[in-house]
Amino acid sequence: MTNDKDNTITGKITRALAERIIAGHIAPGTKLRQDYFAEEFGASHVPVREAFRRLEAQGLVVSEPRRGVRVASFDIAEVHEVAEMRASLEVLALRHAAPHLTAAILDAAEAINRTGENAADVRSWEEANRAFHRLILTPCGMPRLLTTIDDLHAASARFLFSGFRMEWEAPTDQDHRAILKALRDRQFDVAAATLARHVKWIGTKPGIKTRLKTPS
Amino acid sequence: MTNDKDNTITGKITRALAERIIAGHIAPGTKLRQDYFAEEFGASHVPVREAFRRLEAQGLVVSEPRRGVRVASFDIAEVHEVAEMRASLEVLALRHAAPHLTAAILDAAEAINRTGENAADVRSWEEANRAFHRLILTPCGMPRLLTTIDDLHAASARFLFSGFRMEWEAPTDQDHRAILKALRDRQFDVAAATLARHVKWIGTKPGIKTRLKTPS
DNA sequence: AGATTCGTTTTTATCTATAATTTTGAACCT
DNA sequence: AGGTTCAAAATTATAGATAAAAACGAATCT
To answer: What InterPro entries does the entry give (chains A, B) (predicted)?
Structure first.
């Protein structure tokens, strides 16, 4: 979505705000004032507004005309929704990527998976997790699909970072290992089914906060 | 995505441009100059820029920093990609919507289907087709999923209107009838499978222009 | 006291002006 | 002639200024 080589001020502001919202540094429902961020980034408010439009399309903020934008709130239903969408689309991507997966890619995925298992905090675990999924899905060669999946990952990460589980330990990622094994064995159906279950499971973790929506 | 009650100038420009791009009135690859549209809509170029950002997120235009935006080009691969994504996501939506489908909704869908079959041109057929899909999918109650599907429908419509088939006749929509029948019989798996096949078929129609990409 | 209206303040949305970058084209050199 | 360099023109990106709408609060009325 947001091109990494987008070096415009709008691009920088978009990335910075997306980062903060995903990390949970700005609470859901918070009103985002354009003048405030214009000053913070040493810019005028025009690029801030453009950043708002991008974030809006990504689903990270909601905008009411003449009333500004607020950080999007989300509830357990949306977490499920995103999980289901990811499951559907990542399976689709994997089906198309599978024939193009080389041993080298699978080795790299395994390495990243180990990195994730040794991660010290949620943040770096999520980064490794995202890299893992990206690595095995990218060869599908479907750019629109991949950017949509990226947006969904951002939404998932937001949930993950929302502190629904205070203490956190790096899990040995059994599912990832099973997916890789199935891919090596060319058992693509097994890999796809495992991936679907794996992604959907994220939305059903125990101990979920059900009240994240802001009282309107 | 774009809220219909968005009465801001940005909103109007966004809708007008999206309309034209989808209808094929502006050719893929065409450079969109902000000053031109600012004057046309009697506005300054700031809301035009915001509209560009929205269209960019929708995939209707592509933007290169400092070089402006162009109407997004698309090739046969992307048509397939969109069809596959629609198939996956519409099936997901239908699975969640199915339990909430009432006889009244199915009757309305059947009526819309007849409207489509009597359509005089591609334009009105597409409108009825889109209404049909929307009607049976909306009860899924997954807003994010529905807006994503809407964006994909826009991309599909763009392809449909791109004149890949000069003469056009309204088809009796056999698939739609089959889907409705399966839904009435509570055979949700049949309905889902038919829907998937139906949507994917769009990308495989004969007589497709394969050279829509602009020579870069 | 509680509600309501009106005016002030804050914030958004838009316009006009300026700066920076890219494109275009002509002159120049080989 | 063909290519290259440099300057002029066009266009994008951003800043600063203005207008309009909404939020807020105080004063008034019931």
So the answer is: GntR_C, TF_FadR/GntR_C, Tscrpt_reg_HTH_GntR, WH-like_DNA-bd_sf, WH_DNA-bd_sf
